[in-house]
Design goal:
With 223 residues, the protein is an all-alpha fold. The protein has one domain: Growth Hormone, Chain: A, CATH 1.20.1250. Helices cover 78% and strands 2% of the residues. Strands 1-2 form a two-stranded antiparallel ribbon. Helix 4 runs parallel beside helix 6 and helix 5 packs antiparallel against helix 9. The longest helix has 31 residues.
Amino acid sequence: MNKRAKEKLVVPFLLALNAGFIDGFSFFHFDYRFIGMQSGNVIQAGISIAKGSIINFWDFAIPIILFILGVITRGFYSYYLTQKGRFEFSSLILLQLSGITILTTIFALGVDLSATLYVGLFSYFMAIQFDAFSKIRELGYSNIIMSGNIKSLASNLTQYILTKKITYLQATRIYMGLIISFFAGIIISVTIGTHFGKWTLLGSSLVLCLVFIITRSEEKMSL
């Protein structure tokens, strides 16, 4: 994976924005299921089992399973790209962009698939984003689940207060940026969702298209 493209700060912020955007939509339009944040689906699946509702359990379990398959697919595809000497970063983004765009179009045109299957298929492509892009400037981060970023923000802020080292302050700013981006994605999605309905998820395609343009241009500059 090209380091220059990977460490462009705007990229993780845009990916966090995309995650908030797509989960903000799925929570309200797909009966409290999540496309990206699978921990929420795990909780709901556990509650369904506790209530004795096997049908509801599968509503949440299927997206989890397809998310796992997405991670596996990403692993094989990354290996193929590496063997062929191709840029991994932009190729993975292009795959996610294509999948999200096609699925959104099918969904918006009213193709009769269950909400569970739609969520699962979207989760399959979101797994690419979650698993492939996990570091920025040597800092581990998540662009889908914010709980780890919140913990890292608090930890680095504490260390900065204690030591006054600028590196901890810089890390704090990065984690804060990720959280704010995710939060902004939710607000934008819910706000425009009332106007664009099922076509709202094309907003995710626009964000991913921007990420692809940025990363591809950075990769070309490294040649």
